[in-house]
Amino acid sequence: MDTYPFFKWCDETSLAHAIRGNTWAFPLIETIHILALTVLLGGILLMDLRMLGIGIRRIPVARMQNQLASYINVSLVVGIVTGFLLFISEALKAYDNQAFRPKITLLAMATIFHYTAHSKATSSATPGGPGWAKIAAVVSIVLWFGVGAAGRAIGFV
């Protein structure tokens, strides 16, 4: 399936033209995007390190998850919205970029994993026990840092 017509349509929208036509729009959106990703990855990394037995051991995993969930959820939404705005302003560049599709694929995988298997691993009644939690933490770290690395690579490939 050729996605070029969709990318071309995105690139020609009035929103894309507005972002490209304003000197400060793209840098401001990108700054918010990076800040949201910092909060997202920071919260997830804290959870994953705790699940691996590294870091704040005095707080139970389920309690830490409850405390970080709103930060993670809000930063994910902000990251997706700002990421969409960045994409739409340079959709044709994204179409040809070799790092864009891996980033989107990893983002989808990481998000689905976070709200399914990772969420079960952080609950207090995890049937799989600590071994499963450690596996979930490692998979989570690999996926989310893959998203970050692929996102950073977009500017260089």
Structure description:
The protein is mostly helical. The chain has one domain (4-153). Helix content is 80%, strand content 0%. It has seven helices and no strands. The chain has helices at 4-11, 14-21, 25-51, 61-89, 91-96, 100-122, 129-153. It is elongated.
Spans of at least 5 consecutive residues with low confidence: none
Shape: elongated
Distance between the first and last residues' Cα: 23 Å
Order of helices and strands: HHHHHHH
Overall number of domains: 1
Counting DSSP H or I runs of 4 or more residues, the number of helices is 7
Please estimate the helix content.
over 70%
Q: How large is the share of residues in beta strands?
A: under 5%
Rg value: 18 Å
Structure class: mainly alpha
Summary, kept brief:
The chain has seven helices and no strands.
Set out the fold topology:
Elements: H1 4-11, H2 14-21, H3 25-51, H4 61-89, H5 91-96, H6 100-122, H7 129-153
List keywords for this structure.
157 residues, mainly alpha, elongated
